Amino acid sequence: MDHIDHADRNPAIAELLEDAYIGGVGLDTAARHLWVIHSEADRLKELAGPGTEAELVTTTAESDAPIRRSIPRAAVPILALVMMMSSSGVALAASQGSLPGDVLYPVKRGTETAQLIFTRSPQARAQLQLAFARNRLDEIRRIGDTRPEHVPALVADITISLEEVEREAPEVASASQRIRQETGEQIAQLRLPGPITQAVGDALSAAPSAQTTTPAPVAGESQTSTTSAVASTETPTTTETEIAGTRPGSDNAGPAVGEDATGASAPGPTVTVSDAPSEADTTTATTTPAAPSAGPSAGATPAPSGSSTPSANPSPSASANDDGPVVTPRPHPTEGGGQEGEGTSRSDDDPTGAAASGHFVRPADSPTDEPAADQS
Amino acid sequence: MMLFSDEIADGVRRGDPDAVGEVYVHLADRLLGYLVARVHDRATAEDLLEATFIELLRKGSTITGGPAAIKVWLFRSAYFNALDHIRKVKRRNEEITDDFSGFDFEDTQDGPDEIALRNERRSVVRAAMAHVSADQRAVLQMRYVAELSAPEVAEILGKTEGAVRSLQHRGERALARLLEGSSSAPRMTSDSDFPPSAPSDGSQTS
Question: Is A214 left (phi over 0), alpha (psi -120 to 50) or beta?
């Protein structure tokens, strides 16, 4: 109905002008824009809907905290379409065989992150993460000799993925254990240079101990705050721990989450005293020293509390906010992408894919990721 | 190329973000291209693209009509958003030739020669576009980059359809003349410079 009068268009000029200007929307840009659209819709819905107590907080506090937690429905088909749309699909396909250090490698990882972001069911997530962990293992195999400097980061990625798999989907723990074991064997075969071996050891040891020690208490805490289901109680909790988690300051995930934490904490303090569980304070106390020390010494016990608490904490607010399944790491991508989009000044908005995918990294990554990245 | 369905148009009027997302999937490429043509800067164009779709989400209920009306609404909104931006930033023609930075993404599969050739051709076309009159340029951008019909362009620009067609033809001739003078530009009358498999529509947004 709209392209009826191509007859009055000069095809040669059409070709020239389309080539000169139409470059296709990048995947990360499209994903960011779709997030912004959905979070804006949620915001509008809350503003229009019958008043909730959360609204009063959100209108003043840049409306970040509670709204962004909800996940756009039907985002999966949209993302699939986005992937097919435009020429970026070519680069995506080309990126699938890339290795760490390659130009297209960030695209590959970004695709994986995007897949994860748009997958809600715990089983499917576990499957994806297992597959991604296998990809990392495969990459270690292929670059172990040539680019050993990337190995620690890959190992850290594996441990983080497996840690979440085992926490969220214990039924596939055996598969996860197998990957972990294979990773260990692979590392042993590689005969890496000394400092890298050290970094790999840190990466290997930090995350697994995290998942063995902390899940139970954290899960318990999230349960209680979910059942209480009062928005005001969890707001201070999350902000407190987010601040604690981000204080060490990872390079990539730091800014977005940090901003959000400070923004959201504005309304917080008034309520903190009354309802915030004491755990919030204790975790702040423990993580602050723990995270910096995690790099060199990889202390087994302090590190876990720093790494897993922020990741587990968003879940209560996600579930209490609106609908169904609780998927732990999702809220943060929402905040990262959304906030970026809504910020009035866009000058600091780094348009590269690396930054975008960095924001999608859940905060749990930042403490554990950091030592590996630093040492490599 | 089919536009999105009537159900999606209904969804947009209800303010359904999924419907807006579908529209985004269908039209974002072209809209971004149009905005790039207008503001000469990809990052700015992406911001304007986002703002335009947020506007669609907010004001979708005010649109009367189906998918075509939504498309026209979007491009009109983009047109004025870009106009606002241009008025704010008074540097319209200075950076026309150095704005490929955002375009190298799709070229990674090609060899350096092809990339250089294509960039050369693009810069020539953009430079030529800068030298046609503002009215002609606006019409050419809407007709070719935005793929709007002449009546739609007339509606957005507040001109008669005849005026739009006349501007289009004069703009085409001016552009062809400018490009003929350039040695590296393909001749307007020859199609051999272009892959025959690429029709003017459907190739970009399918």
Answer: alpha
Q: Please give the C-alpha separations between residue B82 and each of A356, B43, B88, B174, B185, in angstroms, as whole numbers.
A: 25, 13, 10, 24, 28
Query: Closest to B32 (Cβ–Cβ): which among A20, A25, A72?
Result: A25
- CA pair distance A187, A176, nearest whole angstrom: 17
Q: Does A44 touch chain B (CB under 8 A)?
A: yes
State ipTM. Answer: 0.76
Q: How far apart are CA B53 and CA B56, in angstroms?
A: 5
State pLDDT tens for residues A69-92. Answer: 344 444 555 555 555 554 455 556
What's the CA gap between A330 and A336, in Å, rounded?
10
B68's enclosing H/E stretch is helix B67-88
Residue B194: closest C-alpha in chain A = A15
Four-point Cα dihedral A76, A78, A84, A85, nearest 10? -160
Residues of A in contact with B58 (CB under 8 A): 40, 44
**A54 contacts A46 by C-beta, under 8 angstroms:** yes
Among B26, B34, B106, B179, pick the best mutation site for testing chain A contact (most A Cβ within 10 A).
B106
Residue A268's φ and ψ, nearest 5 degrees, are -60, -55
Q: How far is CA A117 from the centre of its chain?
A: 8
pLDDT tens digits, residue range B111-143?
A: 778 778 878 888 888 888 888 898 999 999 999
Token duo for residue A171: 């039924």
Give first-to-last CA distance, chain B, whole Å: 7
Looking at the partner chain, which of B21, B67, B165 has a beta carbon nearest the beta carbon of A37? Answer: B21
State the sign of the Cα–Cα–Cα–Cα dihedral A278, A281, A282, A283. positive
Which value, in Å, is the radius of gyration of the alpha carbons in chain A? 22
Burial class of residue A62 in the structure, from the number of CB atoms within 10 Å of its CB (0-12 exposed, 13-18 middle, 19+ buried): middle
